[in-house]
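User: Batch of two.

Assistant: Item 1 of 2:
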Amino acid sequence: MKKFLALTLAFVMVLSVCLFAGCDEKPADTTTKKPADSVETTTGDKNTTENPATPADTTTEPDTPIDTTTEEPDAPIEPEVFDGTGRLPGYEDVDFRGKTFVIAGYTGCADGFDNVREIYSEDTDAIAVAVRERNQYVEHLYNCTIEVNGSDNPAGLVSAEVTSGKHSIDIFSQKYAVGTAATSGANYNLYSLGIDFTQNWWDQNYVKTNTVKNSAGVDTLYSIVGDFSFSASSLAHAIMFNKNVYETTIAQDLGYDIYQLVRDGEWTMDIFIEMVKKGATDVSGNQAFAYSEGDIIGWATTTHATHGLHAASGLPMITTTNGTMSFAMSNAKSEWTNVIEKAIEVWALPQHDNCGYSNGTAAIISGNTLFYSNLVATLEEASVRDSDTPIGLVPYPKYSTAQENYAHYVDNHLMTYSVPTSVVEIEELGDFFTVYAAHTTAIVRPAWIDAYAYEYCGDADSGEMLDIILNTRTYDPGYLIFSSFEGEISQQIDAGKNNITKLIDKRYDSIAGPGGSIENHIKAISDNKA
């Protein structure tokens, strides 16, 4: 069924691009360029105008003209009415005069984490087709070309350009760099590009967390993610479940509808514990539960699930409020004590097996576990995607129904986007980045969610759950900037020792005191004049 739905979805996406492009032999009538064999871009000076008298020569002209206006150009930008096929309201007069914009992304050669495909891909899957469609509309509507520069070190290419005074790369992605992007001095404060970061195509949780006032009281933001950055979506940690095990143990015996629990805000740790216990079967008969012994366990995990457990509470380690970064844990000791206590209880369940990546994936496919905690991207792995096992996706549970939102942390492999200081026409680039992001949310995000829902999971409910997960991602500086501290919290969960209050007191000075991590980070941002 998953394969049939995948083929149907891909056919629909390919057909839409064919209709857009006149159904030529290659959808590649788009002027978007594929990654070059070399990591060096061949694009010349972006500040020159390519044949401004005849802009039509620099863009793809589909057989059916695209409506470049909206019915109500002065109306507020509403995501439910902006479908990405016309000009973005407020940007009707934008014309880039045939300019080429180069975006540098990771090829994934070093560690397998690839984000070039979110910029351009020649693949035939529905997501790749949507990416090309996005590029075609942006190029045609605003008279420009999008070019990808694939490299395993985009930041290195940018650094060389900034040092030499050259310019070819306009936007680039960085990995493990949420902190250093703001302090390197090689990137612009994105607010200086005139971008409105309150719009929904920028991840609002990321914007809020990483908009930091410098010592002069100026808001700064040196990196950003949105729907154009698949890594920030696929690298969120969530929970998968085997639907066969669920139907025969949970739905049948307990009568729960897990999706409805999530919708109603009643998907909690206590219910999760109940399901983990009920879903397990001691096949080996030794009164213990282990995947290696052929048992059906209630919950399979990797070691990163301890992080997922405490992040699910929504309690931040370090938070940013109105541009001021602070050590939030120091004012929430009792709340953290309760969360760690419950997390220890969940982690210590005998029906839980911390069996690792390969065994956890094998267990969810084979039906040897009810739940499996890992990256959303796990669903895209060939062994999972090509199996006939029906798999669902749900958020991490809340700690109580009083908790406002579900919460999910994003792995530190996520690739954020920045603009190097070698760019000259920054307001023009701000306009480009905005329309690129907006058209991605309108065109690519639905295709991305549909692919995961129908191709990888096989139901619309999982797509709805994925939407909830994407809207509740967290980007805690206590992990993505000051990474060693989170490990100490997770270690308490793993060891079953709740000393969180002592840890908070012990680390207060090094994090929040004079000369601590937060103060030093703000100083480094303030020294960055870009």
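Item 2 of 2:
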Amino acid sequence: MCGICGIVNLIESDPVDRMTIERMTDALAHRGPDDAGCFVKGQAGLGHRRLSIIDLSGGKQPMFNEDRSAAIVFNGEIYNHRDLAAVLTSAGHTFKTRSDTETILHAYEEYGDDCVHQFRGMFGFAIWDQRKRRLLLARDRLGVKPVYYYRNGRFLAFASEIKSLLEIPSIPREVDPEALDLYLSLRYVPGPQTMFKNIFRLQPGHILVADDHGVRTTKYWDIDYPDQEPRSPEYLLERFRELLDESVRLRLLAEVPLGVFLSGGLDSSAILATMSGVAGGERVKTFSVGYQASGPEEESANEFEYARLAAGTFASDHHEYRLNARNFAEFVPDLVRYLDEPLADPSCIPLYFISKLARQHITVVLSGEGADEILAGYGIYGRMLALDRIYGGFGAFGRLAPWIARLTPSEKLRHYVRMCGQPLKTRYQGVTRGFSAEGKLRLVGGNRMKQSDRRLREIFGGYFKTVEKASPLDQMLYVDAKVWLPDDLLIKADKMTMANGIELRVPFLDHKLVEFAATLPYASKVHGKGGKTLLRTAMRGVLPDAIIDRPKKGFPIPIGSWLRTSLRQFTRDYLLARDSACSRYVDRQETARLVAEHEQGGADRSQEIWTLLVFEFWHRHFIENHSGLAAAQRQRPLFEEQLAS
């Protein structure tokens, strides 16, 4: 696991500045504390920071082919690299290391751009082909590893994190207004956009090529939902177990200690169970995070009971971290610095602290991300399908829904009544949201609302159209795999673990397992009120029933309680300050109303407040070129007095 960066000048006679590449590389030091390297020649420059996982003594990057005509920088892991290296050796290629990086380079020589089809793993890599004066930039199929880029008429720059790109003086720091509107709706910015104007994500399953013909991106992989073929439940169960076992086994490839993030939920417990079965009897190290309980909300958010149950079942070497409101608030400035762009998912913070704990014991960690998105684990899928039946069966009600919604006193109920009159492709915008339509209208006004609604329909409508022949459930799973999964879950997972120099691996997102899950019938995903039917069946008799049968809880965080109590003044000091960044973009009075309503218990506005707070700190740090950390330190004595009182 590493950090990569580079510049290719589109004018051949324009040389790359080595000091710029070195600054870009240094900005990624937290991703690769073990080694650093740069290559600069003519119009191209590459930088690399290394976290050593495989071939600890070799594998230094940038790495070159035999005649040094091609150079690569690589972030990720290729789990099938040994088998692929054997094939390439038979084809005449000579290997100097045991590194998977060299396997990618030789695969490029053998297969060209189609080399990406040979890889099973997670990756972001760049290959500079000196002979062809050509850059190949690639991102893995599901988007586990991030790749960002900026281009203008003179150069293309890329990096694992945006902060590396910002080391280039000519790249401006500007808010993209359209991205901000999308962020307010979703709590994250859907790719390829970022909150920075003209800085983009390379989309999952895509490559980018820059050469004499220009810069272009191409999709090389997608999730297909074929017509269902008759297969017995026994076959599906056996094949699922085989693929999950294989995926976990592949992800144990390392020359450093490994462990598991254990929430006590079904997904992470299933990873622990499978890992324990293939780890050869060695005790697995497990890590859980919870909260220092000072009230009922903190206590109810703790999942230690279930995590301990799973750990005890498999006799793991278990470790716990307890987070409090002070930890949470003091980390916010660092949070936005590590994330690069606002992502208002409060679970980022406990994920950071559990990663910090894990780094004291291990270098590689497995987790259960992705199971919900491939096996329909979220409750919203059932609710949306129920609304679909209302929409399809009561046409008259659908036409009257907007009018009925206006007469409904509850904002939440109005939201669902309004959705009854909309088709799925209009209604469904992922498993999470920021501001409701009503709340956003009050916050930003009608004209911006129309623009942002149109853009949301374009993004989600495009994905729905791609799989329009699939079932409604599979359509939603596809949308979440393309937007929510890479642009929220996997971004936060990568950034928070790499902030601590730890590599995260996600067995449920092995592309062969994902492709198999796409062929499953409805009953293998959803049965009754619960999702992930096949996973529950596979784990029955392996995991305790209390874990298998418990309702999905997500990653609970007592942020609502904290924003009313311990973090009340913290919120006011930053969000309602006269010079707040938010007041330049949204209605100040509406922000104050939201804060007051939450404090007084009139409604839970924690998600809206947190969305604005994260943007506030991000803007201070990146746009105003003013360190949010320094600002927090100046305020900290006051904040500590407030906590003490």
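The chain has four domains: 2-219, 233-375+488-548, 379-482, 559-644.
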